[in-house]
């Protein structure tokens, strides 16, 4: 087994910090979201509909029309509270593998929806990469409720 040398903390602690940072990033995404607009006025889903309708890949618009458009209110709640759940789960390390996979999928969904926006692509690619690294490195082994409760093996 190769010994990993790091500065200050162990590799497991650095990975835990990466996971916690990703959780805080999701919490910030949730915090700055106009929740009243999303949940009461439907502004988020209307915005997404405009993006999906004019998308360069027609399949995105068709999928939006089949999955999201018939149920805009529940889908708004899914988006808003998924970001909150991901942020909390990753920050405290509860059900971390589930949160990392869900976050990876959500970031890939956002990436496909916003494929024309370079700023969004960078954020979603970075978050997806962190999710993948944190998942494959089993970042829930340190500083997490998962480790405290022995929920997932090493």
Automatic annotation (TrEMBL):
TM spans (from-to): 6-27, 98-118, 125-143
Keyword Membrane assigned: yes
The keyword Membrane appears for this protein: yes
Keyword terms of this UniProt record: Membrane, Transmembrane, Transmembrane helix
Protein name: DoxX family protein
Organism of origin: Streptacidiphilus cavernicola
